[in-house]
Amino acid sequence: PGAPTGADDAATKGLMDASNMYAEAAKPAKKSVLLRCGPSPLRKVCWYDPSPALSLESLFRAACGLSADQQFLLTDAECCPVAVTSSLPSGQTFELVPLPMLSLPNALTPVAVVVVDPISTGAVVAHHLHTRRGLHVVAVWSESVPDELKKFVAKGLDVEFAGRIQHEAGRVKVTADAVRRLPVHVVDVIVGCETGVLLGDELSEALGVRTNGTAQSPLRRNKFLQTEAVRNAALTACGQMLATSSADVETFLRERCTPFTKAVVKPVEGAGSDGVSICNTADEVRAAFAALEGTKNVLGLTNYAVLLQEYLCGDEYVIDTVSRNGVHKCVAIWKYDKRKFNNSPVVYFGMRLLPVDAEPRLQEMVTYTFAVLDALAIKNSCCHSEIKLETRGPVLIEVNCRIHGGEGTWAPMAEAAMGYSAVTALIDAHLDPGAFAALPTVPCNFAAHAMEAKLRSGVEGTLTAIDEDKMQTIRTLSSYRSEMLSFSVGKSIAKTIDAVTASGNINLVNENLAQLQADYAALHALVEQGLFTAVPEEQHVQLELLRSHTGSRVASPPTPRHEP
Could you give the CA distance from residue 245 to residue 557 in angstroms, rounded to a whole number? Predict the structure, then answer.
């Protein structure tokens, strides 16, 4: 054979290069990830890829202190469960989530969730945990809940609690120890009502379960601090001032309201529209401050300071969110319908559930809300944020760091429209990372449309009659689905001036949006005509005394007050 040619040399070199590349590729690659498991510090683990999946699983168990029979899920930065394999990307953080429902500390210990202040929608959450998820529920009452509020549970939502614990202010360790002594294995803490927000942070941290921690807790109840945190994060925020004296009010009027247009006066720690005044003059601001100073709000909390804010123009929305490990999901967008009624400018007429594409700026509003949650250090659980959409963009009114209130009557409407609600999503965020990961980031692809319509009273005193014909007409509307009524003949009824004094609500659902809106308008036309007749309380008492003494029927007065 002839001498090697240049072509042969090139071929030989190519074979050698390929062989070297193969040898380099076959060499095990060192990888590392950070593991998060519960409240413990992050753990760094390393391995050489390729490695058997079982070896990697054993490594993860050992690093996180899990027994060989403890089942778990591994979730990525988006909270989506992923397979344990040596091909996992290096340099990322994963969460190892034990599954206590499938592997208990011992066979006789049932799994439980603590609900702090299980009233209003918190009662719905507790009922869902118990009846749909098969979990035990422990009720922990915060020091802020008056005894009368503990009965604020809708009919049919009662739960046989695995324990009832009354917290005392400043004694979270005592409360946590009381929870630990119960014959249950507590895997999470969920806040049920606004009164429990601070204790929820404290107790979840003390028990070592999923938590937002206590370092930024004041931001989660104090509306003034919230807005300042939003401003410090370079997000759009409203002008405001905290007033503890009449001198502060005068400073606000002089420095923030010249020339005067409108201003808002409200409790710095409140709920709903309780105590909220929209003031058209400086004297109205002074009067609203005097009316709030040192009083107790609907949550039983003392108004130790009053919040004075600029009046925000534009439509008002609610953005309901759930979060897990800093991943936020918008699970509902509600558009408020607030109008003037009984001389009050902030009366709820209702709200509509919106898909994100229903209006051009809703996605912008959701993005803004997620940034607000980051500014408030919200990484886990549920929030109910109220936003005004101004020409300059979305502006925060306040964030309520708990689930949407209103006794949760909106939840079935949301499930009819989207297949889930903030109630189910909140529980998934705490207990089911796979279901949480499957939630869309924003509400979309509705199967139906939904609106809540509030019933309003223009009279006050003792209710003597209900216009049943009008109520029956409401119930025959094609969009009617359910109702929650807070009135009955012989009981007291208040004039509706805010969310707290509403007489109930009607839930409307329809696949046809135009029909839904027509039914909503027809309902409010009936309400405007008047549903209720009442007499003054003292007059009713006198009539009842007369009836009891005579043992006979006594006619009611001929000129009862009707709704305008």
Answer: 47
Copy the structure tokens of residue 524. 């409010």
User: Would you give the DSSP letter of residue 514?
Assistant: H
DSSP notation for 88-125: SPTT-EEEEEE-TTTS-SSTT--EEEEEES--THHHHH
**DSSP string for residues in 364-395:** HHHHHHHHHHHHTT--SEEEEEEEEEETTEEE
How many C-beta atoms surround the C-beta of residue 452 within 10 A?
22
- DSSP conformation class of 63: H
Token pair 């009114």: residue: 397
Cα separation, 333 vs 417, in Å, equals 12
Q: Using the CB atoms, write b or e for 485-500: b if 16+ within 10 Å.
A: ebbeeeeebbbbbbbb
- Do the Cβ atoms of 161 and 182 come closer than 8 Å? no
* Predicted confidence (pLDDT) per residue in 295-346, tens digit: 655 455 565 789 999 999 999 999 999 999 999 999 999 999 999 999 888 8
Q: What does the pLDDT read at residue 221?
A: 87
Contact 532, 462 (CB under 8 A): no
pLDDT band at 437 (very low <50, low <70, confident <90, very high): very high
Region of residue 381 (left: phi > 0; alpha: psi -120 to 50; beta: else): left
Where would I find the H helices in 381-512?
Answer: 411-418, 422-431, 433-438, 468-475
pLDDT confidence of 435, banded at 50, 70, 90? very high
Residue 120: alpha-carbon gap to chain centroid: 12
Residue 29: how many CB atoms within 10 A of its CB? Answer: 12
Residue 339, Cβ density class (10 Å: 0-12 exposed, 13-18 middle, ≥19 buried):
middle
Mean pLDDT for the stretch of residues 35-49: 91
* pLDDT at residue 431 tops 80: yes
The residue among 175, 173, 172 whose CA lies nearest residue 164 is 175
What does each C-alpha distance from 58 to 41, 52, 74 come to in angstroms? 19, 10, 13
Q: Backbone dihedral region of 417: left (phi > 0), alpha (psi from -120 to 50 degrees) or beta? A: alpha
Q: Are 437 and 80 in contact (CB under 8 A)?
A: yes
Average pLDDT, the chain: 89
Decide if 316 contacts 390 (C-beta within 8 A): no
